Model the fold of this input.
Amino acid sequence: MLSKKVADSVNEQINKEMFSAYLYLAMSAKATDMGYAGIANWLMVQYHEEMFHAMKFYGHLVAIGAQVDLKPIAKPLTAETTIKAIFERVLEHEKGVTASIHALMDLSIAEKDYATQNLLRWYVDEQVEEEKNAVEILTNLKLLGDGLQGLFMLNIELGKRKASVPLDFTAVAAG
Ligand code: OFO
Done:
Protein backbone atom coordinates (compact mmCIF):
# COMPACT_ATOMS: atom_id res chain seq x y z
CA MET A 1 0.00 0.00 0.00
CA LEU A 2 1.30 3.46 -0.92
CA SER A 3 1.65 6.07 1.80
CA LYS A 4 -0.68 9.05 1.36
CA LYS A 5 2.36 11.25 0.62
CA VAL A 6 3.58 8.97 -2.19
CA ALA A 7 0.07 8.51 -3.64
CA ASP A 8 -0.43 12.32 -3.68
CA SER A 9 2.92 12.83 -5.38
CA VAL A 10 2.20 10.15 -8.00
CA ASN A 11 -1.13 11.88 -8.71
CA GLU A 12 0.76 15.20 -9.07
CA GLN A 13 3.19 13.50 -11.43
CA ILE A 14 0.31 12.18 -13.57
CA ASN A 15 -0.77 15.81 -13.92
CA LYS A 16 2.77 16.87 -14.90
CA GLU A 17 2.98 14.13 -17.54
CA MET A 18 -0.45 15.11 -18.90
CA PHE A 19 0.71 18.74 -19.01
CA SER A 20 3.84 17.61 -20.87
CA ALA A 21 1.62 15.83 -23.41
CA TYR A 22 -0.50 18.97 -23.78
CA LEU A 23 2.61 21.15 -24.19
CA TYR A 24 4.03 18.93 -26.94
CA LEU A 25 0.65 18.81 -28.67
CA ALA A 26 0.59 22.64 -28.67
CA MET A 27 4.16 22.74 -29.98
CA SER A 28 3.25 20.23 -32.69
CA ALA A 29 0.35 22.44 -33.77
CA LYS A 30 2.72 25.42 -33.86
CA ALA A 31 5.28 23.56 -36.00
CA THR A 32 2.45 22.56 -38.38
CA ASP A 33 1.41 26.22 -38.62
CA MET A 34 5.00 27.14 -39.43
CA GLY A 35 5.02 24.58 -42.26
CA TYR A 36 7.34 22.00 -40.69
CA ALA A 37 5.35 18.75 -40.91
CA GLY A 38 8.35 16.58 -39.97
CA ILE A 39 9.09 18.58 -36.82
CA ALA A 40 5.37 18.50 -36.00
CA ASN A 41 5.55 14.70 -36.33
CA TRP A 42 8.43 14.47 -33.81
CA LEU A 43 6.49 16.61 -31.33
CA MET A 44 3.32 14.56 -31.87
CA VAL A 45 5.25 11.36 -31.14
CA GLN A 46 6.51 13.08 -27.99
CA TYR A 47 2.88 13.82 -27.07
CA HIS A 48 2.15 10.06 -27.28
CA GLU A 49 5.22 9.28 -25.16
CA GLU A 50 4.03 11.66 -22.44
CA MET A 51 0.53 10.18 -22.45
CA PHE A 52 2.16 6.78 -21.99
CA HIS A 53 4.21 8.14 -19.05
CA ALA A 54 1.01 9.45 -17.43
CA MET A 55 -0.87 6.20 -17.95
CA LYS A 56 2.00 4.10 -16.62
CA PHE A 57 1.77 6.04 -13.32
CA TYR A 58 -2.03 5.67 -13.46
CA GLY A 59 -1.60 1.89 -13.85
CA HIS A 60 0.72 1.85 -10.84
CA LEU A 61 -1.97 3.45 -8.65
CA VAL A 62 -4.57 1.00 -9.97
CA ALA A 63 -2.28 -2.01 -9.39
CA ILE A 64 -1.59 -0.99 -5.84
CA GLY A 65 -5.19 -0.08 -4.98
CA ALA A 66 -4.50 3.65 -4.45
CA GLN A 67 -6.93 6.34 -5.53
CA VAL A 68 -6.47 8.07 -8.88
CA ASP A 69 -7.06 11.79 -8.35
CA LEU A 70 -6.97 13.69 -11.64
CA LYS A 71 -6.33 17.43 -11.50
CA PRO A 72 -6.92 20.25 -14.02
CA ILE A 73 -4.35 20.54 -16.79
CA ALA A 74 -2.93 24.04 -17.27
CA LYS A 75 -3.04 25.80 -20.62
CA PRO A 76 0.28 25.22 -22.39
CA LEU A 77 1.76 28.59 -23.35
CA THR A 78 3.95 28.39 -26.41
CA ALA A 79 5.36 31.85 -27.00
CA GLU A 80 8.34 30.46 -28.95
CA THR A 81 8.54 31.76 -32.52
CA THR A 82 11.48 29.75 -33.85
CA ILE A 83 12.22 26.01 -34.10
CA LYS A 84 15.42 26.53 -32.12
CA ALA A 85 13.47 28.23 -29.31
CA ILE A 86 10.97 25.34 -29.31
CA PHE A 87 13.72 22.76 -28.78
CA GLU A 88 15.44 24.89 -26.14
CA ARG A 89 12.10 24.87 -24.33
CA VAL A 90 11.84 21.07 -24.80
CA LEU A 91 15.23 20.62 -23.10
CA GLU A 92 14.41 23.04 -20.29
CA HIS A 93 11.05 21.32 -19.75
CA GLU A 94 12.59 17.84 -19.64
CA LYS A 95 15.17 19.00 -17.09
CA GLY A 96 12.27 20.11 -14.88
CA VAL A 97 10.57 16.72 -15.31
CA THR A 98 13.82 14.94 -14.42
CA ALA A 99 14.00 16.98 -11.22
CA SER A 100 10.42 16.02 -10.26
CA ILE A 101 11.06 12.30 -10.98
CA HIS A 102 14.17 12.47 -8.78
CA ALA A 103 12.18 14.20 -6.01
CA LEU A 104 9.57 11.43 -6.24
CA MET A 105 12.34 8.84 -5.97
CA ASP A 106 13.73 10.61 -2.87
CA LEU A 107 10.26 10.53 -1.30
CA SER A 108 9.74 6.83 -2.13
CA ILE A 109 13.09 6.00 -0.53
CA ALA A 110 12.23 8.03 2.58
CA GLU A 111 8.82 6.27 2.77
CA LYS A 112 10.39 2.82 2.16
CA ASP A 113 8.06 2.34 -0.82
CA TYR A 114 9.95 -0.32 -2.79
CA ALA A 115 7.33 -0.87 -5.51
CA THR A 116 7.29 2.83 -6.43
CA GLN A 117 11.10 2.93 -6.39
CA ASN A 118 11.15 0.06 -8.91
CA LEU A 119 8.67 1.84 -11.14
CA LEU A 120 10.62 5.10 -10.92
CA ARG A 121 13.84 3.46 -12.10
CA TRP A 122 12.17 3.13 -15.52
CA TYR A 123 11.39 6.88 -15.47
CA VAL A 124 14.93 7.78 -14.36
CA ASP A 125 16.30 5.97 -17.46
CA GLU A 126 13.60 7.47 -19.65
CA GLN A 127 14.56 10.99 -18.56
CA VAL A 128 18.20 10.37 -19.53
CA GLU A 129 16.90 9.45 -23.01
CA GLU A 130 14.50 12.42 -23.20
CA GLU A 131 17.19 14.97 -22.33
CA LYS A 132 19.65 13.27 -24.71
CA ASN A 133 17.12 13.49 -27.58
CA ALA A 134 16.62 17.23 -27.03
CA VAL A 135 20.39 17.87 -26.76
CA GLU A 136 20.97 15.93 -30.02
CA ILE A 137 18.38 17.99 -31.89
CA LEU A 138 19.91 21.24 -30.60
CA THR A 139 23.38 19.99 -31.62
CA ASN A 140 22.07 19.14 -35.10
CA LEU A 141 20.57 22.61 -35.33
CA LYS A 142 23.96 24.05 -34.47
CA LEU A 143 25.73 21.90 -37.09
CA LEU A 144 23.14 22.36 -39.84
CA GLY A 145 22.48 25.99 -38.95
CA ASP A 146 19.02 27.29 -38.15
CA GLY A 147 18.59 28.93 -41.56
CA LEU A 148 16.06 27.58 -44.07
CA GLN A 149 18.36 24.86 -45.43
CA GLY A 150 19.22 23.53 -41.99
CA LEU A 151 15.58 23.50 -40.94
CA PHE A 152 14.63 21.75 -44.18
CA MET A 153 17.10 18.94 -43.36
CA LEU A 154 16.00 18.73 -39.73
CA ASN A 155 12.36 18.61 -40.84
CA ILE A 156 13.10 15.55 -43.00
CA GLU A 157 15.04 13.85 -40.21
CA LEU A 158 12.43 14.41 -37.49
CA GLY A 159 9.67 13.34 -39.85
CA LYS A 160 11.04 9.78 -39.60
CA ARG A 161 10.32 9.40 -35.87
CA LYS A 162 7.79 6.72 -35.03
CA ALA A 163 6.03 6.08 -31.72
CA SER A 164 7.90 3.54 -29.59
CA VAL A 165 5.06 3.17 -27.07
CA PRO A 166 1.64 1.54 -27.54
CA LEU A 167 -0.99 4.05 -28.66
CA ASP A 168 -3.73 2.10 -26.90
CA PHE A 169 -3.21 2.67 -23.15
CA THR A 170 -5.78 0.14 -21.96
CA ALA A 171 -3.23 -2.49 -20.93
CA VAL A 172 -0.81 -0.11 -19.18
CA ALA A 173 -3.68 1.61 -17.33
CA ALA A 174 -4.86 -1.73 -15.93
CA GLY A 175 -1.67 -1.87 -13.83
FE1 OFO B 1 9.18 14.02 -21.23
O1 OFO B 1 9.15 12.71 -19.91
FE2 OFO B 1 7.48 12.43 -19.26
O2 OFO B 1 7.22 14.18 -18.84
About this structure: Helices lie at 4-34, 37-64, 83-110, 114-144, 148-158, 170-173.
